[in-house]
Amino acid sequence: MGKTATKKKNLADKVRKSKAATQIKNNPFEVKINRKKFDILGRKTKHDVGLPGVSRTKAIKKRKETLLKEFRQKHKSNKFIDRRFGEYDAKIAPEDKILQRFALERQRTHDKKDLYNLNEDEELTHYGQSLSEMEKLNDLVESDSDSEEKGLLSAELTESHFGGGGGLLRKKGSGEKEEGDQKPKSRQELIEELILKTKQEKRERQTLKEESQVLTEKLDQDWKTIQGLLAHKTPKGERKDEGEKPKSDDYDVMVRELGFEMKAQPSEKLKSAEEIAREEKERLQKLEADRLRRMQGDMVDPSKKKQVHFSADDLHDGFILDKEDRKMLTYQDGKWNLDEADEKVNEEEEEEEEEEEEEKEKEELVEEDDEEGDDDDDDDDDHHSDLDSDQCSEEDEEREDEEDKGVEETDHKALSMLSEEEKKAQQEAAKVELPYTFKAPEGTSELREMLREHLPENQCLIVERMIKCNHPSLGVGNKKKLQNLFAFLLEYVGELAVSSPPQLSTINKLIPQLYGLCQLFPGAACKTMQTLLSDSMHTMEETIEVKGWAAFPGLDMLIYLKISGLLFPTSDFKHPATTPGFLYISQALTKCRVSSLEDVTAGLVLCSLAVEFVSLSQRFFPEVINFLLGVLHLAVPDQKSLGYSVVPPFRLAGKCSELLVVPDAEACKSWNRKPLPLSATKSLKLSTELERNHHRLSLLYTCLDLVKRCTTLYKDLTSFSHIFKAIRVLLSKHLPVKSYACHFQDLHREILEAIPESPVPHPPLVFDKKKPIPLKLLTPKIVEILDYGKKRGNTKEQREKERLQHKYKREFKGALREIRKDSRFLAQEKLSDILRRDADRKRKVKELYGSLSTQEGEWKALKMKKKKR
Amino acid sequence: MAPSRDANVSAGNKTNYKRDISAKVELVIGSRKHANDIFDVLAYLQSDEEKRVVCAAHACCRLFAALLERGDLFVGQLPGEERLLEGSHNPDDKYRMFVRHRYNSCIELLLENMGHSVYQVKETCLCVLMKLAAAEAKHPLQDQSWSEHYNFPRELVQRVVQRLLSDSEDMAMLISRFQEFLEMDDVRFYVINSVRDYVARLVDKHKGSVMPVFQNNVFALLSNINMPSQQSEMSSFMVKPEAKHDDWKAAKLKEHKRVFDRMWLMFLKSKLPGNMYKKVLVIFHESILPYMSEPTLMIDFLTAAYDVGGAISLLALNGLFVLIHKHNLEYPDFYKKLYSLMEPSVFHAKYRARFFHLANLFLSSTHLPAYLVAAFAKRLSRLALTAPPAVLLMLLPFICNLICRHPSCRVLIHRPTTAGDPCDDPYIMEEEDPAQCHALDSSLWELKTLQKHYYPDVAKAAMAINQPLSSTEVDVSELLELSPFELMERELKETPSDTVPLEFDSATHLLRSAREVLGAHFSLD
């Protein structure tokens, strides 16, 4: 509506502003004055005066142009369309029209095969004259007007012409004063002088140019004389081409380079060591704060927090690898260059492989680099147009080079390390065999096959290379492969742990790889860990259902738990991987029967894992306390009249209730503290009673140490003394500490000091203070009305709807009116048509009658004449 | 003669024994001339091969059922085998006596075979015996006139029962097979009777010593007895009762209940091993108490069991509850006893769910004194310090429900009057009397501790005491059976958010992390 309104307004304005309009406006018969009810100050009135006659004629005219035409065309199927370019377009200047037509004409005649035809056989013209002809005249004398005062804008000139310029004017003024002292000049004189001077200069220049012209002509003539002497003559045109072409190409290249070049970005300044350290510190602080927040169990809006994972190779420079997958859109010779980049990558991969083969044959690396450099040069020469693709592929190359170097470096490191150790022969051989690329395994068995024969260090290396070769940025399916690799690796770790003897050092070597993979794919890693835990839990549950108790989890599960603690934060309030781990530990500590020293060892491993997991969050783990109490109870020799009770799986008295009692005082004396092997959870090879006793003491020591750690962890809990009451009773009254070594006695004393004898007083519990609910406010709501005359009081949507409805109504009315007018107009036209036709007919009839009557008259006259005669 | 021929046959044609047996059976049934062939069939019963025994047993069943129907068996007091020859009987009687003797020896053999090592043989023998018993019931071998038991084959059933209640062999499987026959009301009645007699005899003989196998068998049989709850349900009989036998005891529910009472009393009188106690108590409230004519007879047993302590007490609770609830048992210091049952081991017992279900029932009364409820709440929360998470998830709402039910106990979690001043816990854990333990003066600091529990759901449940409790109770019945595995599954089922938080301290070694505890005590090799 607005659009049409403005159009109408424009038309009306035109009418109003035209010469006739003033006459019309002044004509009182044409003007209709709209009566106003009120005079409002400050309101602009647009429609107080109307020109009904004018607008009606305009409307009729418009209808005649559009509606009438359509009406006349009605029921006529054929139509003449003029397709000449711009025939009815008045906006295009006739010259342009001609030019465009010419261009179109040329385009039509231009064939595909002529695509590379660079105007060889056709003549270029300008205003009908051959351009080649005109080229000969290119050294015409330039016209004066061209060269006149070109770029000549001295201070004097401007000053004299315009009399402006602050500083200059003053300076000049001072100079003038000196002169003026001698001979005062009027402005008129000055100007004349200036004109004279410039004219003179101009003349001089002209003569100079003429001279040079004469000289060049002379030179040309001389050349023509010599030209004949030259044996080989080249046609002028070609020579020119030769001279020009490389130049223009260079330019083109330059332009394109500039156009396509990635915008040079200001490089960040190199960070000093302090800055790096500070940034690292800040990052860690941020992560730590995040961890604390999760520990509190605050639920975060996941949409807000976007996890940014850092790969192990990340330089923390904001460079994201994932985007590398994307192909660059390039054009080559006007065609979409689709598969160029891919081919490149493939080529390079091939190159890489070749490289590796050659390396295997111990060739020099430098050569290889040189070759690569050559290749690059060739590339540059060949493809100028797809510079960007080249660039990106170069980047790829560089990165891969880096990776290669990384591999090589580690390789070298390993080599040097080994050489230091001087274990040469067979290890060297093994090293030589180690390939540089590995495909990702399809299953655990395959992985096992790949890794089994190698040394732990090499296994680590193999996995590292596997990850590098299958980095997700290098291929589409790699992500899946590496996710699987994590699961396979974990399974392999489990196998290593249950093999006898357990190869824990190998597992140790694989930890960084696991960590790296986990950082890459947290979701998949978490899922894998969950499956492992739930499977083991399921089997445990089944045995419990059958037997009522279960065996302690194997070393593999202990290792898995430990790894889960290394990969995932254990301090979180709730975590998809570690919370099931906690449940698993809890289940094992409550349901597994303790019947041997191995069981005690496994239980203590679980306890230490649990203590480790909660050491940051200081969460309460009742099962650990129960288990430690039970273990201590196993060391109590006289199990009567106890002041405490133990919790299942331990029993106050029974078959295995004196498992840790050390009867031999000698063993207590000779015991030395040393860490227990993890393999002791599975099978103990203790031949002598002394060794057994030593193992018992080690277990007891571990247990006491864990108790001590727990006391420090939980000392802030409100029921601290109740939690440790039983342990305190046991330690103070029943455990034969006196017979143990002094380490024990120290530890024992520390624990007893940590646990207060009488409970610490606490304030009684009260509910959290709540914010009082505010009273209902009964003051009226005041809305200030700023814009009178507008509809208000509704919501935005309602207002919008009302507005639209109003608009629709007005449009509808307008359209109705227009239609009515149209039909009226058409009726009028039809009527006038009929009238015209009738009039025509009448006229023709009249004519006929007329002619007939004249004929008749003539005939009668003739008759009369004859009669008369 | 027969065995040798039998041996020849078996040696010569192994697959043909079936045909042989059936042929012989046909011959015997066909005419009296071939009566001696019964020996051959009986010989098969003693065979080593179980298939033959099974086959022979079936054959015997068919044979003697047919003979019984024909009335070929001697009825009444049977003279001895030796006297048969010298006695002056007419040949017809002689034949019938002979067949009766064979019948008796067949039954002997079948009973013997019930102790066979192969289950299939046992089962077949049992079934055959019961079928013969049914046949005998139709065509009684005793004179009916002087039998108060109508024409029920009492002796045969009694002997089967005695065989089932072996004191040297576990017959649980067979007994469960036997259950099918116990569906018949008269069989059940006589079985109960014979069990009682037999148990009484054996207990007398062994004088208080424990017979685990025997008792197991007895228990298996007893627990398989499904008593009818209404007279109208008693409709299936082995022997169809006739109108004139209105006073037949086996057809009366009251009599059933009476013998049921006496049987159980007899059984429980003997000295039982601990696990048998538990087994009995587990089914006590469901399948024993409701069918007794005088449940109050069990009071002594239950109170004794309740005093034993531990799991047995927990289980006895259920029966006691029924007695208290339905039979007006006045149990002094019931709550005191219940209070003393609250021990750490309760959370690990197998019957935890049942116990807490009952405890919830006992404590659901709003008429209990506040000190008592407070004592329970305090004790439970103290015990919660040692409980595993699955229990805690049930226990915390349980405690909250207690407080919610008894608003006067709200001081346990909200004591604003002396807020601020720290005080010792006045609660005395060791005190056995809930009235003396000063629980009402205490606060549930333990729940405060559990707010720091490692399992998030437990911590959340414990957080409930920070706010005023809602007026509606939480339904704990669903939480009673919660197992750690279910918790785990629940944990895993939760759809993980798209981001998994990761440890940011990069791991380089298995036993070297920021807060290493494991590595402090354990080494890799």
UniProtKB/TrEMBL annotation, chain A:
Biased composition (Basic and acidic residues): 173-188, 235-250, 294-304, 311-328
Location of this chain's protein in the cell: Nucleus, Nucleolus
Acidic residues bias locations: 339-381, 388-406
Main location: nucleus
Keywords (A to Z) from UniProt: Coiled coil, Nucleus, Ribosome biogenesis, rRNA processing
Keyword Nucleus appears in the UniProt entry: yes
Coiled coil: 191-218
Keyword set includes Iron: no
GO biological process, one term: maturation of SSU-rRNA
A GO cellular component entry from the record: Noc4p-Nop14p complex
InterPro entries per UniProt: Nop14
Record field: transmembrane: none
Similarity section: Belongs to the NOP14 family.
Known role: Involved in nucleolar processing of pre-18S ribosomal RNA. Has a role in the nuclear export of 40S pre-ribosomal subunit to the cytoplasm.
Annotated PANTHER family: NOP14, NUCLEOLAR PROTEIN 14
Protein name: Nucleolar protein 14
Organism: Denticeps clupeoides (denticle herring)
Lineage: Eukaryota, Metazoa, Chordata, Craniata, Vertebrata
Automatic annotation (TrEMBL), chain B:
Domain CCAAT-binding factor: 313-462
Keywords tagged on the record: Membrane, Transmembrane, Transmembrane helix
Segments passing through the bilayer: 301-324, 355-377, 383-404
InterPro entries: ARM-type_fold, CCAAT-binding_factor, Noc4
Main location as per UniProt: nucleus
Topological type in the membrane: Multi-pass membrane protein
Top-level taxon: Eukaryota
Parts forming coiled coils: none
PANTHER family cross-referenced by the UniProt entry: NUCLEOLAR COMPLEX PROTEIN 4, NUCLEOLAR COMPLEX PROTEIN 4 HOMOLOG
Entry's family note: Belongs to the CBF/MAK21 family.
Name of the protein described by the UniProt record: CCAAT-binding factor domain-containing protein
